[in-house]
Amino acid sequence: MVASRRFVPLVMSMGVALTGCSAAATPAPTAAPVTAAPVTAAPSAAPDGTLPKPELSSIKMGTPIGQFSQFGAVLADQLHLYEKYGVKVTITKFNAGGDSVNALLAGAVDVGADTGAEIGFNSQLTDTPATSVSVEKLGVFDGFFCQASIKTAADLKGKTVGISTFGAAGDASARLALKALGLTATDVTITQVGGSSVRQAALKAGSIACAPISIDQKATETALGLNMLVDLSSNKDAAYPAVGLASTNAWLKKYPNTMLALVAAELEATHVVTSDRATTVAQWAAFLQQTDTVKASADYDAAINQINPDLTWPASGFSFALSVLTSVTPALSTVDPTKAYDASYLKKLNDLGFYKKIGVPYPTTNWP
Fold this sequence. Notes:
3-stranded antiparallel beta sheet; alpha/beta; D-Maltodextrin-Binding Protein, domain 2; single chain
């Protein structure tokens, strides 16, 4: 602005001087005004799915993966999709969702995968709030499996129910199952056991009476002689989001392009899951360290309808999850459910043309 203010008087004085010098001269003929052609801006290139360069070239990711419906983020690693978008990921497997969340909040890992909706809520009560940025499945797809002798709600009273960790998705599933049976948490003893495979072992050993297990494991549980008392997967109103990726707010603020690259890889991997059965089954079998694909195929067919292909979610799902978790932690009643998620990463991928590039339809209605 200083240069501009100095420039104006100079022009005016030059104009005055020129006028004075030409006053006695014969005026020159005035040339016809020249009409300049309108300047047409070059058309903007259509977005082609190109991502901004990530701030980090490597990160640590934690996951409690124990079932096929949690495979998306890990499959992205097995298919080298994270590296495709500029980030090398080192994955650490935890026994339960709560362990993965604790590692994230403590800074032992940078990003959590398949942590459950609870991470965005419980962390709001700490000095390290975290946010979910994608959702790999929307519903509660657990069965509530019990020992063969437990066939009714009355049989269950006074018995022990095994979950992963308090406040985690398994805890929510157990409480939903109890509600469906007309019971409450005070009618049983809820105990922390561990992830899905640990709960299966505890049921087989008879150390717990019942536990929520992913419905895709129904054939396995039935073969063990267990009885499914409640099928939570049939409850379409229980939209309990299973978070794909999440991190602390501080990390997201510092490395937004890195998280964008991770979400892009997860989205592409999820597209592989929903569109390429052969590749997905082979990769799941490799993860299970199995030489054949019999079990992997069965897992795929049982769980494929659980997978959320575009990773988006309805806001009502997080509100429902919060209502369930509040029964465990009353202090969560003060938490705003919209603080638990950030839709901007998936929306930016759509704006950049990434959804179109990999062939995933983007929701036509506003969300979340």
